[in-house]
Amino acid sequence: MIYRSVLFSCFPLICLISFNTGLIYADYWCVNPNTTAGRRYTDNLNFLLSTLSSNASLASRNGFYNFTAGHDPSNMVYGLFNCRGDVNPDGCGRCVANARGDILKTCWNQTTVYMLYDECLLRYSNESMFPWTDQRIIFNKVNTQNATDPDKFNQVLSHMMNDIASQAANARSEKKFAIKEEDYSPFQRRLYALGQCTPDLSSLDCENCLRSAISQIPTYCNNRQGCRFAFFSCNIRYELYKFYNSTSPAPEPALSPPPTPPPPLPPSNSTSSEEGGGISTQTIVAIVVPISLAIVLLVVGFCIARRPRKPYFAIIETSGASEISFTESLQYSLSDIQAATNNFAVGNRIGEGGFGPVYKGTLHNGQEIAVKRLSRSSAQGTEEFKNEIALVARLQHRNLVRLLGFCLEGEERILIYEFVTNKSLDYFLFDPEKQPLLDWSRRFKIIGGIAKGLLYLHEDSRLRIIHRDLKASNVLLDRNMNPKIADFGLARLFGVDQSEGNTSKIAGTYGYMAPEYLHGLFSVKSDVFSFGVLILEILSGKKNSQFNQAQGGDDLLSYAWRQWRDGTPLALVDPTIGDTYARNEVIRSIHAGLLCVQDEIEQRPTMASIVLMLNSNSITLLAPNPPAYFGRSRTQSSPNDLPVSDSSTSTKSAPNPSINEVSITELHPR
Q1: Which of 27, 102, 460, 469 is catalytic?
Q2: Is 469 a catalytic residue?
Q3: pLDDT tens digits, residue range 200-212?
Q4: pTM summary value
Q5: Structural domains in the chain, sorted by start
Q6: Which of 217-221, 230-234, 353-357, 588-592 is most confident?
Q7: CB neighbours (10 Å) of residue 408?
Q8: β-pairing verdict for 120-125 and 77-83
Q9: What is the pLDDT of residue 50?
Q10: Euclidean distance between the first and the last CA atom of the chain, given in angstroms as a whole number
């Protein structure tokens, strides 16, 4: 049965149609016809749709995949697919392939398209949409039949939907998907419900999106037996029949059975052979088989030796030609980078870090870029280097600096990033003349943006990334003063020696390092500690490593704790902010910061909890314990106090922290 959608007139142009393909809910909308689309845009769109379709049937994709085609902002295309959480890879592949075909038939000249089936969605846009938290209704479908016993029905439905929103947002798997079924009447009538977000949403954004959809039920679905809402990045549905496959994840594809062994050779009549003076069958086999195998091995070895080397572009995750094309799309030529930076002119240099200098550049199409010319100390080979770059380039979030590509020619290893207009946070935060530009609303927005970026790295990206050197100089500000975390995902490029959260190389910045990190241990809670220090710096306008009160010689963490303990937390606030701040936001931020810098790892909150703390006034926060460095605790921030291993009893020297403003990260594939 094919349904027809009811769409709201939120957009200037909406195309609606149902296709008789055997896939339910084949509905779509297209908006903003691109009358000036050139060949490059069309090529990028075709490449995007082909890449999405070719990746849909891979079990490793877990039902979700996003991709960006093109370099030039004027013709770039961003797209993704997301299959229903219980659909197996084959079903996902069929659904996405069908959506691709329908898009090419009906919306080929549109810049923003959303195609929704019962088993999958596919959307693309000429504007970045990773993630897209717009909560305008795309469509709403309502069953025309009223539910019996509406009071009981709505009570059960409300309970189910609230559970679904929480379960989907906090799902442990990469799929932000939840289903639930319950009886709602004495006659054992059963209600089935579903909620799902695209996995690029943070847990908080997912829950907000689902609850926004749920809030529409009383208005548009009141007392109806079935209803469905879809927003850009989430959807909900309930029915009186089971419209999904099962409550368990889609099974992995079965392995092919091993080949049947050949039948045994018939027994030879050795007596008759010998009597006739001939050679037995067994003897012939014993001679011929080894010779044949030797010949085959020689031929195979010769072919391998003569086979041309693989092309320059690496294959990521063995997922076919589209991955090669993706890596190819990231590569820039050295001549293009030299032209963009005026051959790395001194006047174009905008920074210097532990990984090498950074230059501002302008490509031939006018796009501004930041070029990081890496040092030659990387321990990785060329293919591994390209693979890591391709992985990091897929991480896209509004609060992360976007990696556009790379250049590998000769001994040059260069990373190309988007250019962020307003330099780094420390440029404003610690300069008395520029501090007034950061009023409280901007500072609070910066704190919240950094928190969302870290949450994405820790929980919501396709990799788990621990930044390990979060600080004010590694947070860039765009033209609207939105924060973007920089220098994440570089540890693999430089071969940091680590195993299961232990490292023999520490590279970070004193004053931001968690106490356990000084002993070579790191986790997501190490980033949480650094974020807590950063919160207190943003609030006070003072740098932790240079903070020294005239009375007591406290560091920033100890001073903040004393003010909190004495009931005067607002004494921490930067005087340049004035009296325009919201008192409850400031106190909540100080509270969250102190929770982050606690000594015990288990007591520090997760980034998901922190984001919730900063965005909700109804949550009761736990009382913070003294910070790690308060009262000169067991671990100190001074390099002179670090423990040193006795070489006579240890085969490995103690970790030696770096103080050269180097930013190191570690990637943990899930």
Answers
A1: 469
A2: yes
A3: 888 888 988 898 8
A4: 0.52
A5: 27-125 (3.30.430.20), 139-239 (3.30.430.20), 321-418 (3.30.200.20), 425-643+652-669 (1.10.510.10)
A6: 588-592
A7: 16
A8: antiparallel
A9: 84
A10: 38
